[in-house]
Specification:
Helix content is 30%, strand content 27%. With 284 residues, it is α+β, with helices and mostly antiparallel strands. The strands form five sheets. Strands 5-6-7-8 form a four-stranded antiparallel beta sheet, with helices on one face. Strands 9, 10, 11 and 12 form a four-stranded antiparallel beta sheet that branches. It has a four-stranded antiparallel beta sheet with strand order 13-14-15-16, with no helix packed on it. The termini are far apart.
Length: 284
C-alpha cells in the first residue's frame, strides 16, 4: 500500500488492525509526540522504546501492519496520520473503554411547557432533561471523560454548550458526527404549533430534530442583544430561551422560503429572516 492508495478499507478490517495492545500503544506513542509546534516523529528505536517492546522483529511486525494506512515513514521517522489522532482521542474520551454509573439531579431549570423543575439524568453515555409531565425535552451524548468529576448539573451545562456548537456546525451544512454533508428538511408545525425542522446527514445515522428558532442562538446580533442584558447565551440551556417556545417565529414566504425569528418582545430585539437552509439572510 502506498501514500497514494485511495482504496477504502472496510471498517471491520480497520478495527481489526487495532485488536492488539502493541498496535494501540504504537499509535498512542505517536499521538503523544504531537506538539503545538508540530510533529517531530519518532525513529524506529525511539518508538519501540516508547512502546516498551524488546523484540525488534515482533515490534516491526506490528508496526508494518499500520503502515501506510495509519502510520507513514518519512526521513527515517514515523508519523501518525490524522485517523490515528482521531482514534486516540476516541480512546481517551472513554466511550469505548469506560462505563459510568447512572445518576440524576433536580436542575435549576424549568419545563417551558408547565414550569415544573426539570430532572437531569446521565445514563448510558447520554444526558437528558426530563419533565414528569412532558417526558424528555432534551438529550445528547456526553463521553465519560467529559462527565468525570462533574455533577449532573455541570454535565448539562457542558452538553448545552456543545449542543450550541453542534447546531451551528449543522446549520453550516456539516455533520458534527462524521463531517459529512447535511440536508435540511422543510420546517413544519408540531401539534403544539412550534416550527421545527430536521437536519439529516447524508453519510451517517445523524437525524437532528430542531426548533427553527434555536438556529439563531449563536448569531452575533442575538449574542449581542443578550450580552447587553447581562446574559451569556453560552450558559443558557437551549430550551430555556423564551423565544424558542413563544409564538415569535413565522413563515413569511414560501417561494422563496423565508422564516422570521424575533428573539424578544422589546423594541430593540433583533428579528432575523432565515432561508430554507436556516441561514440568516437579513437582520432587523
Amino acid at each position: 500500500m502506498t501514500d497514494d492508495d485511495s482504496d477504502t478499507l472496510p471498517p471491520s478490517e480497520a478495527f481489526a488492525l487495532f485488536a492488539d495492545e502493541t498496535r494501540v500503544a504504537i499509535v498512542e506513542a505517536l499521538a503523544e509526540q504531537m506538539t503545538a509546534e508540530g510533529n517531530d516523529g519518532l525513529s524506529f528505536a525511539d518508538l519501540r522504546r516508547a512502546v516498551g517492546v524488546r523484540d525488534a522483529g515482533q515490534f516491526n511486525y506490528h508496526l508494518s501492519k499500520l503502515c501506510d494506512r495509519f502510520v507513514v515513514k518519512r526521513d527515517g521517522k514515523y508519523y501518525p496520520r490524522y485517523a490515528v489522532l482521531r482514534l486516540v482521542g476516541a480512546i481517551h474520551e472513554g466511550s469505548f473503554t469506560e462505563r459510568t454509573e447512572p445518576r440524576s439531579e433536580t436542575l435549576d431549570c424549568e419545563c417551558p411547557n408547565c414550569g415544573q423543575s426539570l430532572t437531569g439524568v446521565f445514563e448510558d453515555g447520554f444526558v437528558k432533561m426530563e419533565c414528569d409531565e412532558h417526558d424528555m425535552l432534551f438529550q445528547t451524548s456526553v463521553p465519560p471523560r467529559a462527565a468525570a468529576d462533574r455533577s449532573v448539573s455541570e454535565i448539562v451545562a457542558f452538553a448545552n454548550e456543545e449542543t450550541q456548537h453542534h447546531i451551528q456546525k449543522a446549520i453550516d451544512g456539516t455533520c458534527f458526527i462524521c463531517s459529512g454533508p447535511l440536508s435540511v428538511e422543510k420546517p413544519h408545525r408540531t401539534s403544539s404549533d412550534q416550527l421545527v425542522t430536521e437536519l439529516a446527514c447524508d453519510s451517517c445515522w445523524l437525524r437532528m430534530h430542531l426548533p427553527v428558532a434555536t438556529s439563531v442562538i449563536r448569531h452575533p446580533a442575538v449574542v449581542s442583544y443578550f450580552h447587553e442584558r447581562g446574559i451569556d447565551v453560552r450558559t443558557v440551556p437551549v430550551l430555556s430561551f423564551d423565544f424558542v417556545w413563544d409564538d415569535l417565529t413565522e413563515v413569511v414566504s414560501e417561494d422563496p422560503y423565508r422564516v422570521r425569528v424575533t428573539v424578544g418582545e422589546e423594541a430593540d430585539a433583533p428579528t432575523l429572516t432565515l432561508d430554507g437552509d436556516l441561514n440568516a439572510v437579513n437582520v432587523e
